[in-house]
Amino acid sequence: MNWKQIRENGVKKFLLWDDVYNIRIDLMLMSILLVLVISIVILFALDVYNHSIKVLLWLSYLVFTLICGGSTFIKELVIAIRKDRSPKSELEKLLENHSFRQLFKEYSTKELSLENFMFYEKLRELVSKYGMNGFIPHETLQQVENQFFKQDSPYELNIPSRTRKLFYALFENYEKPDSSSAELIEYANTTKVSDLYTIIYNDLLTNMSDTQSRLIETDVFQNWYAVFTIQRKQSVIIV
Question: Rounded to two decimals, what is the model's pTM?
Answer without folding.
Answer: 0.58
